[in-house]
Structure formats: structure tokens, C-alpha cells
Amino acid sequence: MTDNFIWHTERIPPAVTAWLTGLLGAGLLVDLAKMVIVAAILTGFVSLLALALVWVERKVAAHVQQRLGPMRVGPHGLLQTLADGLKLLSKENITPLEADRFVFHLAPLLCFAATFVAIAFIPFAPGIQAVNFNVGLVFVLGIGSVGVLGIFAAGWSSNNKWSLLGAMRAGAQIISYELSATVALLSMLVFAGSLDFRGIVASQAGGWWIWRAPVVGFVAFVIYTVASTAECNRTPFDLVEGESELTAGFHTEYTSIRFAMFFLAEFVNMFVVCAISATVFLGGWMPFHIGNLAGFNRLADLIPPWAWFFGKTMGLILLFMWVRWTFPRLRVDQLMNLEWKFLLPLAFGTLAVASILVTAGWYFFPG
Amino acid sequence: MELTPVPNPTPAGTDAAPIYEDYFVNMGPQHPSTHGVLRLVLKLEGETVLGLTPILGYVHRGIEKMGEAMTVLQFTHLTDRLDYLSAHMNNWGWSLAVEQALGIEVPARAEHIRVIMAELARISSHQLWWGCLGMDLGAFTPFLYGFRDREKVNDIFEKTCGARLTVNYIRPGGVTQDVEEDFAKDVRAFCDYFEPVIDEYETLVGGNIIFQERTKGVGVLGADLARSLGCTGPTLRASGVCYDVRRNRPYGIYSKLNFLVPIASEGDSWARYKVRIAEMRESLLIIRQALDTMPEGPVRAKLPVIVKVPAGRWLGRVEAARGEIAFFLVGDGTDKPWRVKVRSPNFSNLAALPEIIKGCRVADVVAVLSTLDVVVPCIDR
Fold this sequence. Notes:
The structure holds two protein chains of two kinds.
Chain A: H1 12-24, H2 28-64, H3 80-89, H4 101-119, H5 136-157, H6 161-192, H7 197-202, H8 209-212, H9 216-231, H10 243-246, H11 256-281, H12 294-301, H13 305-324, H14 332-360
Chain B: E1 23-27, E2 39-45, E3 48-55, H1 63-67, H2 72-79, H3 87-102, H4 108-136, H5 141-161, E4 170-171, E5 174-175, H6 183-206, H7 209-215, H8 223-229, H9 233-237, H10 245-248, H11 269-292, E6 312-320, E7 323-331, E8 339-343, H12 345-356, H13 362-372, H14 376-380
Helix pairs in contact in B: 2-3, 3-4, 4-5, 4-11, 4-13, 5-6, 6-11, 11-13, 12-13
């Protein structure tokens, strides 16, 4: 039953290549066609993903707050975000009089492009990965940092004092928290022994790093979760927008499609960090196996790999949402103290311990 | 386009500086956290607040002057529009002044109803404050929880008074009409429902480490400063001064009721939070006592058809949700007051903000303003 494309997604790309070769003949044309197809799929996926996540967030928020949330447009308000998106597109696109026009228009593109590119490197299932790159993780972290440039540019060019304050906070916050997020990932990479997403997933065939690396796996996971919440500007680290303080922070002056781009980028960014977390700590698309319990393992295998991946990612996203609708916001100096005095030293400690453990081979199922 | 530089307004207590040298920010009059149309001019250095000046008057309606043009009974409904969250207490304060002027005895049943209504209003006001405090600190959920519970109080008001916010229920001589027949049952049900919910409030917001970090030691208002600025209500009591009009200058039947006046000594935002939460518990206690002892009988004393205020001066002071609100009535023997003056607790409490905010962060302005809990229409009148 499991011997088909749904479980063995690694057979899809060769099949598509074969079909295209038959259609167009071998050569440059096939590569070009593949690029177009993948680009189209990714664009569609990202748009759908953002719409779905906005809907999920509104529903989660509503149920946390004992409300129903959107109920009118479509069953259980499923089409609400689509309607809201269309409404946003039809709004007037305002550029403030004294704004730096070029930078002002560039900023949302920067934000959106940074998160969009990162999606291409994530392995959703065996063989389903748009770009396989031997230092994929480093590249994704690097391209993710470009997003802060967009926020910075937006805050600076809007010619609004609140926006500038928001941008100042963004600069300090995102750059600081990127450090501990990266170090936390690094301490798992010494276990995985690979910077390639495919390699990282493959290294977890015997078990996920979160529990296979004794204690440090879990500590690193917590550090990464906290730091990536800050990177996504989500409560309790949403100082960059800080509605009750900065009205809307860096995107105060943005309207219409440009605002929508910031908004979408935020949700896609959340998906990206959760997907990275799921891949590095929770085994990506690897099913959950328990040692020699063959019966249980076979049951786990009945769930296709992509479902495992999306299940893990969605679980992490729900955790983010739960936190967002429960916690108040930190203050800017407390935010910095948390990072520099607590998270970063802890992350470095984790990295040191992890290196020792790997060198000594003291972790579950080595080799 | 050429922009003409406009001199920046300089917050009190800071040096005037050349244009563009300092970072001035207008918080309000349109801002999510100023709770109405309040404008705060902030002088910043990075995120640190160097000085702050509140600029008032955006909702000035001339309520005091209007009082001179209408009879004392007509003015009662305008008092609802001062601090709209303590509408019952405002009505009561005005009624006290008028009753003193006319020498009216209020029936016992009316006194009990007044106490119950006023304490319900205090609870609903604190519920709303609790929700807004959560939202100002970046947690959206408390806001909806607060409103969920406030709805139940408003339903009780609606059943008896016909209105939910500007109730206009307590009036000189007693109350408008007797309470609705389910009143005692509804109020008891609400008390039983709300008592455990306060613990839930404490867990959701007060028990959160981030919330404690954001409020402890932030905006410390010393006892001497609080006294000299005329702060009253929970703001004053959180600074360690035990002053409550209900206890120190009892009115109505408060002298017969058993209740505690919660105080705290730290004077920071956290202390103000704790005092208000404790007050909600005490209010439930008061409501239950008043319900138990409520007698039957008339709810309104006989008033002359045309109420003429005799020549003289009277002061009606009550403890509203935010502090002492006092109505000063000067009569000259005609049917209209010669002068009406309102002593607003919010005005005095807001006066503390510029003093205690220096050196704090922008985010603290919101937190401190929220725990001072000002209602702007009462300041601007």
C-alpha cells in the first residue's frame, strides 16, 4: 500500500524529469521547464500558506479568547483571509509626502523576498526540496537576515518617528537574537555533521536530535524556539511593531499591497523558522520510531513523510500562537538582558558541551 | 516642498533645546494606549524618556458651566459623562451635595441599592482596567476576558437602570425606581461567578513573570509626592497612604459595613495592580453584606416640584473607582446652581505621571499610564 508516490516522494522528481525529457528532448529546455514549474509551485504554496496561517492564527486567537473568530465568509470563515487580502489590494497605496520613495517602495519587497527564498531550501519530504545546497542551512540563516534590512529600510524611509523607533528596536533585537539562534543550531550541527538539510535529516534516522543528544538537544531546542520567536517579531518579543506603544512600529505608514507584503512575510517567516526547527531538532520528515518496536514503527511509517513534516511544523507554529495570545510584551532593555546575559551564554555553553559529547561519542545511538 | 520648522513643545522640567536636537514624540491624541484623547509630548533620548507633558482639553465639553444653566436634577445625567466607568458614583456624589443643600433624608432601601450599584460599578471599572492593562503591555487576551465579565455587570445595570454605561440611576433623594425583581438573584449569581474569576485574572496576568518584570519597580510614586499632588484612590493607597472616602469620611451606609481598605507600600505599578485586584474582592464582600441587610420600603424621598437650591455652599464627596470625586455646589436661592465645581481624581492622578516617568522607557509610559488608570473625559470635563 505504501509503495507509491505518496510515501516515496523521492520518485517524483526523476519521474517529472523523464516526462519532460520525453516531451522536450534532453538539454537546457528541460532545466528551464523544471525551474518554471518549481517557481510556480513555490509561489502558489507560499500564497496558500500565508492565507492558511492567517486564518489559523485568527482561529487560535479566537478560541484562546473564548470567541469564534471569523465565521461568515465560507465555512468557519475559511475564505475570510482571501476576502481580507482582496480588500487590502483594492486599498489606496499611500506614500507619505516626505518619505524616501525608493527605499520606501523597496522595503516590503526585501522583507518578502528574504522569507520567500528561504522556503526553497527546506526539505518537505524525501526528494521534495527545490534547491539542494551543501551549505543550505548557512544560506537560509544568511538570507533570513536580509529581512531585517527590509524592516530597517521601512522604518527609516517612512519619515515617521514611531516607525524609526520600531526600526531601531528591530535592528537591536533581530541581530542579537540571530546570534543565539545560530549558535543553538550549530550545537546540533556538530551532532549531525552536515550543513546540508538533506544530510541533517538523514542523520536523524536513528532518532531525533532533540532527545538523541542528551539534554543539550532539548536546551538548544528551547533556545532556538525563544530566539526564533524574537526573530519573527512575535509576542512576547513583538517590540518592533508594539501596537500599544509604537502604534504599528515600522509599518505604520504602509498601506494596501505593501502592508500585505509585510504581513505575509511575517507569517511565512514563522513557517520558515518552525520548519528549520522541525528539520534540525525533530527529524524533519523522519517518522517517529522507537528502537526495536517493529509494530509501532510500521504504524508510524503508514503516515507519509510530508505529513510528518507538516505535522511537526504545524505543532511548533501552534506553540508560537499559543504563546502569542497568552504573554505580555517584554521591555526593550529586558529583551537585551535576556539575550546577552542569559540566552547567548547558555547557547555557547550548549555548544561547548555538545562538542565534548560528540567527540567522546556520548550520545544515544552513535555511529 | 519647503517645511517651516515649528518650535517643539518642551516638557516641564527639561531644558528647552534647539529645534531638531532632541527627539520629540507626540503620544496621542490618536494613539492606541492613551485611553481616549489624551496627548502626551515625550522628550526622548533613544528609548529613554527625559520628560513628559500631558496636554489636555481635547474632550472639554464645559460640563461645569452647563451645570449653571440647568436645574440640579437635570445636571445629574451630565455627571455620568465625567468618568463614564464610575457613572453610579458620580451620580451619588452629586446627589450627596444636593441632598445636603435641601436637607433630604434618603430612604434606607435606596441607600442599600446605592451601595450595591456603586460597588458593581467599581468592579466593572476595574475589570475594564485589568483588560486594558493587559493590552497595553502587549497581551491581547485579558482585554477580552475583562469584557466578558464586565458584560455581566452591564446586564444587571441594563435590567434595572435601562442603560448600560451612562446609567443616570442614583439621583437626589434616592434612586430613579426600585430595582428589578430578579436583581438580588442576579447580583448574587454574579458574585458567585466572579469570585473564582479573580483568581483566574491573577494567574493569567499577575502570575506571569514578564508582567511582573514590566511592573515591579516601574513608576514608583512615593507617599509624600502622592499626597502633595492630591492623588487619591488605588493610586494613593498603593503608595502606602490609607485614605478611602468610604472609610475616612463615610457616606451612605458604608459606616455600617464590614470591609477592608487594601493598601500597599511600594508605590510602583505592581502595587497599584495588587491594590485594584484586592479591591475587587472587597467590593464583592460589600455587595453581599448590603444584599443581606437590604430592607423593603420606598426608594425615593419626596422632593419639592421645583427644587430651589438655597444660598450656601455644599460638598458631596464619594470614592469613585479611581479615587475621590467631589462635587462642589454653590447655591443662590434660585432653581439653578450659581456654580458647580468637580474635583476630578483622574486629574490629580495624571499629575503624578510627569514626575514619576523620568528615566523610564517608552514602553513604561504605557504601563504607568495604564496603572494610574485615567479616564480622560473626567479630566477635561
